[in-house]
Amino acid sequence: MDLPDWGLKRVLAKIDTGANTSVIDVRSLEHLPDDRVRFEVVYRTKPTRRTRWIEAEAVRWSVVKNTGGKPQERVVCRTKIRIGELEQMIELSLVARPRMRCRMLIGRRALKGVFLVDPAHVNVLTPRRVTTSKSKPSNKSNSKPSARKPK
């Protein structure tokens, strides 16, 4: 999963149909003039920690229940998301998620009308393996389905 407008590739994300708005792990959130924010995105932790500084427009502030069920005010920004070959604009709330394995959750609003969630499948979009002359691709039919628009 990529966030191309922010220059982020292969962000580990989890589909969360229990969340309305998508969320991404950030550090050092700074409020700037003209409804802009600057923040450090933690987009990968293994094998090494990867971060990037982003400046974006804050489209709104929202009160969201955190994982403990307590109301928390969050900044919400808009950016483009790429899942497989599909791209669309989504809203992302910015919050620190230091203890969470997935640095990003994709909520219902980002999925609505575009994706169908099948809970029987996990890790559907994995990085493509580059084959070399020494290793030939397998003809096994246990490949996972790709993300695609529902008909």
List the helices and strands and how they pair.
Blueprint: E1 13-15, E2 22-32, E3 36-44, E4 50-65, E5 71-83, E6 86-95, E7 104-106, H1 108-111
Parallel strand pairs: 1-7, 2-6
Antiparallel strand pairs: 2-3, 2-7, 3-4, 4-5, 5-6
Keywords:
151 residues; 3% helix; globular; Cathepsin D, subunit A, domain 1; 1 helix; 5-stranded mixed barrel; disordered C terminus; mainly beta
Notes on the structure:
The protein has 151 residues and is mainly beta. The chain has one domain (4-111): Acid Proteases (Cathepsin D, subunit A, domain 1). It is built from 1 helix and 7 strands; from the N terminus they run E-E-E-E-E-E-E-H. The chain has one helix at residues 108-111; strands spanning 13-15, 22-32, 36-44, 50-65, 71-83, 86-95, 104-106. Strands 2-3-4-5-6 form a 5-stranded mixed beta barrel. The two termini are 22 Å apart. Mean pLDDT is 81; it is low at 133-149.
For the biggest β-sheet, the strand order reads: 2-3-4-5-6
Overall geometry comes to: globular
Radius of gyration: 17 Å
Fraction of residues in helix: under 10%
Question: Can you summarize this structure?
Answer:
With 151 residues, the chain is mostly beta strands. The protein contains 1 helix and 7 strands, in the order βββββββα.
